Amino acid sequence: MTAIANDLRTGRALVDPELFDSIAEFTVIHFGYDQAKAERATDQALAFLATVGTATVKMVPSDDVDGALHAFILHTADYRDFCNKYAGRFLEHNPRPGGGGRVLEDVQATAHAIKANGFVVMDDLWTVNGENAAQCDSDCGRDYRAV
Q: What is the Cα–Cα distance from 125 to 90, expressed in whole angstroms?
């Protein structure tokens, strides 16, 4: 049996454990996620934000990742520092009234961009109205960085 190296990184590794735990806790309290889902969604929200600065596609969080993203935004100073470090600028949250919901193809492209940026993508969290948008073949070893 051949061992396969996994050099994909996690969003969790980008922040200190105290901040990660605080974001996850806010996700539980304010968005009703259970602890395990909150931690996984927080990981993906951090990977999402770390990818925005270099992405060449429209970046749209999934329904499941969005709660953790909002929980991080509530940590204003830490959010600002993270954005500056990983995206090179402050990433404003500026929803447009009447802008419509998430589009499956945009969320799917986002998941692919995160994978291409070297992050683990937790496919089951990349959903739009309950439909899986990731389909990143995350377990088959396909290297999305080469796309």
A: 25
**Spatial distance between the Cα atoms of 130 and 124, rounded to a whole number of angstroms:** 10
pLDDT tens digits for range 38-72: 999 999 999 999 999 889 999 999 999 999 999 99
Decide if 72 contacts 48 (C-beta within 8 A): no
**Domain residue extents for the chain:** 12-86+102-146
Over residues 109-136, the pLDDT tens digits come to 999 999 999 999 999 999 887 777 776 5
Spatial distance between the Cα atoms of 82 and 105, rounded to a whole number of angstroms = 27
pTM of the model: 0.85
Looking at this protein, which amino acid is placed at residue 25?
E
Instruction: Give the Cβ contact number of residue 98 at 10 Å.
Output: 5
Report the distance separating Cα 55 and Cα 28, nearest Å: 29
